[in-house]
Fold this protein.
Amino acid sequence: MSTSTALRPSVRAAFNALIDYAGLFPPAELPLQQASDEYRSEGAGPYAWMLGRFIAPVALLAAPEARFDVPFSAILQGSDALSMVAALRRTSTRIETLEFSPQSGAADNLRERLDADGLGNLPAYVESARSANWLTTLDATMERLRRHGLGAKLRCGGLTADAFPSVAEVASFIAAARSQNVPFKATAGLHHPVRHLDRTTGFMQHGFLNLLAAAALAGSVPAQTLEEIVAEEDAGAFSFDDEAFAWRDERINVAELERTREEVFVAYGSCSFSEPVDDLIALGMLPAR
């Protein structure tokens, strides 16, 4: 199957609003003004259709310099900040999604707080700490999130080697989310489309095309195949045509891609928007700038 510089329907379905902008966070750690300028610039560019929300800590959104009119995804350290979110929304701050750190408490209490603060209509994604029993409790965690109408959040990397989950951990997370119909966001370490060795850090980094293919195919391929998808390092194994996105011989049609993006792998946070776009251009999956 060949790729092309034409914007195919499968490409649009795969990448529409996929990248939430996290320029405030490591490794970029841009000042607020520079990050907001970059977000606005990309939002006026030819790939604006791929750009999702501006990710920011909720405490920062309360600062006067953060009052700019873009859609936000607010990071919360605990449910106590929900009253601040509710107050900010009353001032027309466009907080559209919530992301909770592992310190945010039980999912059932979180659902009660969301409803109590009038935020029950906001999509909310909860990150669970990767403890020693993280893998063995994934199914129970996803079942609890589904029961309370919450999404999950997968951290794919960080500044140290132990911040990067293994292939088996990523595949198991995606399989558990898909089996319980829990939507998930991903964050950290996903600057590039395909899993690769970062020669600067020496860390193996996961790829967002790997996650997309795994999310779409979870439930229809064996667990071993799902791990092979997550572990894939050959960019040529991924391709697009007018009808489908494919990993090797496994094809995902446009309708299934749209469903995957809406109900399974909804977005990922990246501190750079230009890096993933430039990589996709280099692979022939997006038209040149």
The longest helix spans residues 167-179. The two ends are 24 Å apart (CA to CA).
